[in-house]
Specification:
Blueprint lengths: L3 E6 L10 H8 L3 E5 H6 L8 E5 L4 H13 L3 E6 L9 H10 L9 E5 L4 H9 E2 L5 E5 L7 H13 L3 E5 L9 H10 L7 E6 L7 E6 L12 E5 L5 E3 L2 E3 L8 E2 L5 E2 L13 H13 L4 H8 L3 H9 L5 H5 L8
Parallel strand pairs: 1-4, 1-5, 2-3, 2-4, 6-13, 7-8
Antiparallel strand pairs: 8-11, 9-10, 9-11, 12-13, 14-15
Helix pairs in contact: 3-4, 6-7, 9-10
Bound molecules: S-adenosyl-L-homocysteine.
């Protein structure tokens, strides 16, 4: 009998938010390995199983343990909160496996079972903050140099992403969140909405709405995710909402009619093709590539490449948009 390693994301904490596959993977496991807090969250599913509890910093040990058990022909479930691949055990486990000479063709099967990550869980609790482009950044500098983290914070703050901050603060790491706030305030308004969500879907769940100017004063810890809105995110009736970015296209006050100059089912007039046409027209009227680059905050060589490309056929521009959005 050959062994198996399942990397199981158990979701934010409550069984209602665990997938059927995650429940099945735990049910079929002989051995369950995980950080003690997560073991507690699934305690009722572990009867008759060998359980290996590990501390927070013993990640590689956990992966090595899992491999040893699988080599004995056992089915091992390595559990992570949220999604096992999001700041979780999936990466370190594959690294340990590769180092041991494992390949996907080997005797030992490996499965990653996806789960709802903290970003999904926290977003659902506060409203709909992720309706436009978003990213996550971990403030943990245990394995990542601070300049790397700071550069990412600076870049995404400037690029107006909605951002989820994982690992925002711990007993020993208290200043990272203050630094993140400083970097964000260089690009975003002080009244940008921020939601601080602690222990989503767990017993001590707590949600606090604040603003970028005050976020570092909030009660933030190891079990908190901080969601920072983009420049269009708003809070209404206690719900944090980010518009889909159609504000320029549909007039919500006017029954959702399309604004003048825009067509339903087509890219915006400032979408790629419309924008290229405008760019060419401005260039023809004397605007330099450098001036256009500054105006649109894009690299000059990109503007030059767009201007040098042959203009799209009229028919391509007029073709109906094929992609459908939910
Ligand atoms: N694999 C996990 C993330 C592990 S990193 C996932 O996909 O969610 C640990 C960080 O995740 C915590 O510091 C916190 O920022 C976030 N987190 C995990 N569970 C959470 C929960 N129930 N509520 C709020 N944040 C949570």
């Amino acid at each position: 009998m050959s062994g198996k390693i399942s990397l199981v994301g158990i979701g934010p904490g409550h069984h209602d938010h665990m997938t059927g596959r995650a429940l099945a993977a735990i049910a079929e496991a002989d051995v369950v390995v995980g950080y003690s807090t997560y073991i507690k969250l699934v305690a009722d599913l572990l009867e008759g199983k060998e359980v290996i509890r590990k501390g927070m910093t013993e990640e590689l040990d956990r992966a090595v343990n899992a491999l040893e058990c699988a080599r004995e022909g056992k089915k091992v479930a390595l559990i992570s909160s949220g999604d096992a691949g999001v700041y979780g055990m999936a990466g370190p486990t594959y690294e340990v496996l590769f180092q041991a000479g494992w390949t996907p063709e080997s005797e030992i099967a490996v499965e990653v079972v996806p789960g709802a990550s903290a970003i999904n869980a926290c977003a659902a609790l506060v409203g709909a903050p992720l309706t436009h482009d978003f990213c996550s950044i971990s403030l943990s500098d245990l394995l990542t140099p601070w300049p790397v983290i700071a550069r990412r914070l600076d870049a995404v703050a400037a690029a107006d992403f909605v951002v989820a901050l994982y690992n925002p603060k711990s007993g020993r790491r208290t200043q990272q969140i203050v630094q993140a706030q400083q970097l964000f305030l260089r690009h975003r308004r002080p009244d940008t909405p921020v939601a601080v969500v602690k222990s989503a879907y767990r017993r001590r769940e707590r949600i606090e709405f604040t603003t970028l100017a005050h976020m570092s004063e909030c009660d933030i810890g190891m079990l908190t995710t901080v969601l920072i809105g983009n420049s269009h995110t708003f809070v209404q009736h206690g719900l944090m909402v980010t518009p889909r970015g159609y504000a320029n296209k549909y007039d919500l006050d006017d029954g959702g009619n399309t604004r003048s100059g825009e067509k339903p089912g087509r890219s915006l007039s400032t979408g790629l093709l419309g924008w290229m046409a405008d760019l060419r027209a401005d260039h023809a009227e004397g605007a330099s590539a450098a001036a256009l680059a500054a105006q649109h905050r894009l690299p000059v060589d990109y503007i030059e490449a767009v201007l040098a490309a042959p203009a799209e056929e009229e028919s391509a521009a007029a073709a109906p948009l094929e992609e459908a959005q939910e």
